[in-house]
UniProtKB/TrEMBL annotation:
PROSITE patterns documented for this protein: NA_NEUROTRAN_SYMP_3
Membrane topology: Multi-pass membrane protein
Spans through the membrane: 12-31, 43-65, 86-110, 140-158, 170-190, 210-235, 247-272, 292-315, 336-359, 379-397, 418-440
Main location: membrane
Protein name per the record: Sodium-dependent transporter
Pfam families found in the cross-reference section: SNF
This protein's GO CC annotations: membrane
Keyword Membrane: yes
Source organism (scientific name): Entomospira entomophila
Length: 446
């Protein structure tokens, strides 16, 4: 069985699946705490710029490569650069490893969903999150989260991913809007709104903030992890790739900003610190909800929405490798999915154990999970995207990437030469400079 045997039921379903892949914990869990530790709205300005300039074009190229291949992510590499198979595997394995991190975050969210449903999450002690992550309980929720994700993916594209993505996106949007409206109407919320709207322009010259911004752009859109290429394999020939990528990119931006307005006004209203780091969502918000009338209800809504976002984001991470193995072995989707699930469980458990059994493993002031996250979103994902841009721009014969993006000329592409040279040279160099500048500054400062 190959990717050729399945297609998206509609362009709407494809866009919904792409949005579900992009709008996940990157927008809900990661975006708020990174904003809080990297200059507030200054970081947001950089993030918006990078999504538009790098993200949308990068996603369009990945989808175009996938559709042109029609098989899987590896074929998208080797069809135009025959010796690049190992680079293709690096891309899809990046997504698979990223799933191991997401499973930990999904475990945390599942715990808080159950706490909010069965008990009262607003009454949790301030150190609950630390005690929870330092116990072995997250491993149980991690296992459950992986099994839930695999069950949906095993159902296939139209019956699983497309069907559930469309439904979950709508539920997610409604729930987050409800929480946002309540947050911005709290007494003292204006300070949080100002925090999001008044930039510290000095941060715009900080190369580390640029690195965090581009890393988050790749993380939030799942670029360089094989996801967009694999989803592109199912795209119909008449689909407008650039339009679909733009909708996905701007929706991701919108949801991230919406989360900013859902969290920071409430954080400031409660007198909490915006730079609380990765624990912002889990440590601060339960106590924020405790100071809100009907807070227990809003807590349930919020954590359910976060769980749905985490779940839908994982579909694309495992799908790329599933399709490759199906293509090579001709095995069924169900068999491949559950075989990979067993492997995923094994490599994911050390991530949750980073906070207890393996907590002594520290490198560069980061635990095991922190180092794996750094490796993925600040090194592998950007490098994979650079490689894909070079393959599309230089190895795809007769400017084929423009033909694919324009549906063989049926869609008008303005400034084609600018688009082509952005793919070939401008974007790869731009990404590389952002990656290397902090390293160069560190070396020259020694």
């Amino acid at each position: 069985m190959s990717a050729k045997q399945e297609q998206w039921g509609s362009n709407f379903g494809f866009v919904m699946a792409m949005i579900a892949s992009a709008v996940g914990l990157g927008s809900i869990w990661r975006f708020p705490y990174i904003v809080g530790t990297n200059g507030g709205s200054a970081f947001i300005i950089l993030y918006i710029f990078l999504i538009i300039v790098v993200g949308i074009i990068g996603m369009s190229v990945e989808i175009a490569l996938g559709r042109n291949s029609g098989v899987d992510a590896i074929d998208a590499y080797t069809k135009h650069a025959p010796r690049s198979k190992i680079l293709g595997y690096m891309g899809i394995l990046t997504g698979f490893i990223l799933m191991s991190i997401y499973s930990v975050l999904g475990a945390w969210v599942l715990h808080y969903v159950m706490q909010s449903l069965l008990f009262n999450v607003t009454n949790l002690p301030s150190n609950h999150f630390d005690h929870f992550t330092q116990s072995y309980e997250p491993s149980f929720w991690q296992l459950l989260f992986i099994l839930m994700s695999s069950a949906i993916v095993s159902a296939g594209v139209t019956k699983g991913i497309e069907k559930y993505s469309s439904l979950i996106n709508i539920i997610l949007l409604v729930l987050i809007i409800i929480v946002t409206i309540r947050s911005v109407t709290l007494p003292g919320a204006m300070e949080g709104i100002e925090y999001l709207l008044k930039p510290d322009f000095a941060k715009l010259t900080d190369s580390n903030v640029w690195l965090m911004a581009i890393g988050h752009a790749f993380f939030s859109l799942s670029l360089g992890a094989g996801a967009a290429i694999t989803f592109g394999c199912y795209v119909k020939k008449e689909t407008n790739i650039i339009k679909s990528s733009a909708i996905t990119g701007f929706t991701t931006l919108g949801m991230a900003l919406l989360m900013g307005f859902a969290i920071f006004p409430a954080v400031f209203a409660a007198g909490a610190k915006p730079d609380s780091g990765p624990g912002l969502l889990f440590e601060v918000l339960p106590h924020v909800f405790a100071n809100i009338k009907g807070g227990s209800i809003f807590a349930i809504l919020f954590f359910v929405a976060t769980f749905l976002a985490a779940l839908t984001s994982t579909f694309s991470m495992i799908e790329s490798l599933i399709v490759r193995i199906m293509t090579v072995t001709k095995a069924s989707r169900v068999k491949v999915t559950w075989s990979l699930t067993a492997i995923l469980i094994v490599i994911s458990l050390p991530m949750s154990l980073s906070y207890n059994l393996l907590s002594d493993f520290v490198l560069f002031d980061r635990n095991l999970m922190g180092n794996v996250e750094f490796l993925i979103d600040k090194i592998l994902m950007p490098l994979n995207s650079i490689i894909l841009l070079i393959i599309a721009g230089w190895f795809w014969k007769s400017k084929g990437v423009l033909q694919e993006l324009s549906n063989n000329g049926s869609i008008h592409l303005p400034v084609q030469h600018l688009i082509l040279w952005s793919i070939r040279l401008v974007l790869p160099l731009f990404i590389l400079i952002i990656l290397l500048k902090p390293l160069f500054e560190y070396i020259t400062s020694q």
